[in-house]
Amino acid sequence: MRKVLVIVSTLSLVAFGLQFVFAAVGAFTKPGGDGAYALHRVTGSAVIPALTLLTILFAVLAKAPGRLVGLAAVPLGLVVGQALLAMLANAATDDAGASTPFGLTIAGLHAVNGIVAVHVVVNVLRRARELARPAPAVAAPVPVREGEPA
Predict the structure, then answer these.
(1) Is 13 exposed, middle or buried (0-12, 13-18, 19+ CB in 10 A)?
(2) For the segment 77-131, what is each residue's pLDDT rounded down to a tens digit?
(3) 90 in Cβ contact with 58 (< 8 Å)
């Protein structure tokens, strides 16, 4: 289970990394529109939450320390926060539908929250790898009787 935890944590990190690529695709698509962010939206609302839940599940099944299980759960809260920040940023427009300074600030927090999530996932992966490493062999002391050559 510990190796599966490493694999799922790696996939999670890849998905979070791709999120930034998909956000850039949406931002630079001409002409822009809601469809430009489709990959970003699907990855953020389905793929990442599923991988996060799997990471938590495999951390528990791998009998990981409580701190690692808790750390594996943090991205789930950050993903929920991402959705709330995106909704708030999209709702904060003026009467003509243009972005407001408040909405742009919230959108900036959406990006910062994503960066924090990546750092958490990197730490989960690092700790999962440490957990999956075999313990170093410890040499057992050999009793030596007096008078015998060592």
Answers:
(1) middle
(2) 999 999 999 999 989 988 888 989 999 999 999 999 999 999 999 999 999 999 9
(3) no
